[in-house]
């Protein structure tokens, strides 16, 4: 079945056909003006896994279905989370800079081994579970927290997010990128993580109170952070330039060649299923 998407997020609404029944969102946002301009819209299919910038209430009121690229690149994102964490924990960027500058081990202090350290995963969805499994392979003690228990989680669930932060040497943010989770990693959670703890975020920047994180890094409230996502993207480099012990990447955790192909394949399959009246592969529930 040949699928020709009706809309690809046009900036000029004058070119939009009001007869369109499905829209393809390349990123995480869909302008309200575009939704309102399409009286026959029945499906919004996201190329991305996130949908925080889409007005769910607007879709719900119109009976419009929403699908995402959920799950396609979970293994890639988990791999990148571990790469960021290992680079931070083992001081790889600083060691690389030292060798390039002609130094060797001057001023280098012994780091703590990962074996037996405690990792906390916030959100045990596809990505969170993949992260937890990889951490366990490093012989770390892994726990998690989410609002709902999972009988088959395979890892112990902490009593609360605060309790998870208190017991963790490394706290990984893999929670759902929905508005109600905004700022869940705040100053209190960072304080609970403590001076020896590190934060890794590969979900979305708005889940972390970035001002509180900068303050914690500056004051030494936590030991370090590894970030692939930011409140505003691209992020202002000046915000991070003088901060100690951070590793940054430009929101590319899931950006692999294979993931791109698979995301498009899943988007296409969702559109085909919609036209056939078949169950969608990755519907956003609660609409």
Report on the architecture of this protein.
The longest helix is centred in the last third of the chain and has 20 residues, at 257-276. The protein contains nine helices and nine strands. Helix 7 (187-193) links the parallel strand 6 and strand 7. The protein is elongated, with a radius of gyration of 21 Å. The protein has 287 residues and is α/β, with parallel strands linked by helices. Helix 6 runs parallel beside helix 7 (187-193).
* Main sheet overview: 6 strands, parallel
- Biggest sheet strand line-up: 5-4-6-7-8-9
CATH fold-level name of the largest domain: Rossmann fold
The secondary-structure element order is EHEHEHHEHEHEHEHEEH
Tally the beta strands: 9
Extract low-pLDDT stretches. Answer: 1-14
The structure class reads alpha/beta
Overall tally of domains: 2
**Could you name the CATH class of the largest domain?**
Alpha Beta
How much helix, percentage-wise, in residues?
25-40%
Give the overall shape, derived from the CA principal axes: elongated
Q: What's the helix count?
A: 9
Question: Considering the protein shown, what is the CATH homologous superfamily of the largest domain?
Answer: NAD(P)-binding Rossmann-like Domain
The CA-CA distance between the termini, in Å, is: 27 Å
What would the average pLDDT be, to the nearest integer? Answer: 90
Looking at how many chains there are and whether they match, the oligomeric state comes to single chain
| Radius of gyration, whole Å | 21 Å
The CATH architecture assignment of the largest domain turns out to be 3-Layer(aba) Sandwich
Proportion of β residues? 5-15%
């Amino acid at each position: 079945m040949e699928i020709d998407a009706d809309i690809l997020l046009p900036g000029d609404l004058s070119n939009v056909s009001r007869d369109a029944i499905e829209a393809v969102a390349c990123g995480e946002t869909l302008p309200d003006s575009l939704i309102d301009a399409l009286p026959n819209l029945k499906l919004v299919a996201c190329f991305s896994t996130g949908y925080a910038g889409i007005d769910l209430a607007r879709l719900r009121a119109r009976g419009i279905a929403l699908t995402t690229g959920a799950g396609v690149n979970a293994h890639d994102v988990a791999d990148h989370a571990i790469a960021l964490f290992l680079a931070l924990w083992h001081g790889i960027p600083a060691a690389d800079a030292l060798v390039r500058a002609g130094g060797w081990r001057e001023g280098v202090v012994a780091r703590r081994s990962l074996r037996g350290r405690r990792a906390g995963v916030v959100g045990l969805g596809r990505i969170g579970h993949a992260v937890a499994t990889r951490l366990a392979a490093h012989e770390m003690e892994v726990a998690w927290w989410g609002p709902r228990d999972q009988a088959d989680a395979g890892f112990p669930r902490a009593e609360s997010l605060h309790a998870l932060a208190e017991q963790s040497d490394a706290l990984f943010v893999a929670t759902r990128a929905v508005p109600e989770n905004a700022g869940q990693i705040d100053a209190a959670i960072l304080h609970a993580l403590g001076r020896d703890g590190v934060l890794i975020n590969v979900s979305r920047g708005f889940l972390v109170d970035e001002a509180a994180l900068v303050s914690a890094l500056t004051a030494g409230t936590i030991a370090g952070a590894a970030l692939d996502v930011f409140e505003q993207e691209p992020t202002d480099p000046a915000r991070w330039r003088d901060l100690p012990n951070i590793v940054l990447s430009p929101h590319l955790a899931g950006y692999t060649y294979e993931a791109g192909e698979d995301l498009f394949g899943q988007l296409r399959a969702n559109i085909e299923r919609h036209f056939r009246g078949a169950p969608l592969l990755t519907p956003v529930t609660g609409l």
